[in-house]
Amino acid sequence: MISSGSGEVHTVRHGRPGAPPVLLACGMGGACFDWSLVTRLLAGPAAVTVAFDRPGTGHSAPTSTPPGLRREIDVLDAVLDAAVGSSVDSSVGSSVDSAPAVLVGHSVAALHVEAYARVHPHRVRGLVLVDPSTEPPGAERPRDRFAPVARLLLRTPSPPPALARWLGPACRRVMVRLGSWTGRETATRDEVAEVYSRPDVLRALVAENAAYDELVTEVERLRDEHPLPEVPLVVLTAREALGGPRQARMILGAHDALARMSPRGERVLVPGSGHLMAADRPDAVALAVRRVLDGT
User: Fold this and answer.
1) Which domains does the chain have, with CATH numbers?
2) Among 26, 69, 108, residue whose Cα is nearest residue 223
3) What is the mean pLDDT of residues 241-252?
4) In this protein, which residues make up the domain named AB hydrolase-1 (predicted)?
């Protein structure tokens, strides 16, 4: 656990101290074990990976701080400070505090890492957006159809523990079934039960969904105020999540626009992957991270 302004945040770190940091931010409804297959591929002297659970989710402590862009930027800063910035490479006797990080954001977390790069450009080496939310700069934004339902749910009491023990893992199974092309679950049954059976976690996930529209508005405002640094930017698009022709055109157009945010940006279509790309094609995610680390 590391401390943040929104409570204790759970992190999982792999790699050699002193190696370039890679921060992995999961999508809505996810947890840091979503990245387990990716971190295995990146493990070694080339990078130190840091996956984390946002406040109130996963193994992180409950929080009273509502989700929002400022919170997410502050948490990213705290994770980099505590989990990466204080590490020392004993072979050279130097701190990695000045080493910029590769930020990897899945789905809604792509908005978080983009915003962080705009506010703290000196701390960012590059970006990998993994099947990101379709919210490019200046576009007429489609609102999340689930957000109004989530706001209504927040007005009701949290589910009792007995119900949460069934409901949470069931929701996770549905998420994997709908989002993964391969149907692969990256967590054990015990890990899923431990995280998703907590009523406070379920409420935190609903709160993130309820705050989505406001998050997009805040990011759009930030885009007007802070340029994105000219760093490598890879947008990974899940081919099997494109749907019909109309939806595919919308997603591809939005992801192309996101890639154009940087003169060093590109979009890569990833076959054999649904929205949960870290489960379906961890090799594609790891390859994109390596390319950004290499600056190519």
Assistant:
1) 2-142+215-294 (3.40.50.1820)
2) 69
3) 96
4) 22-286
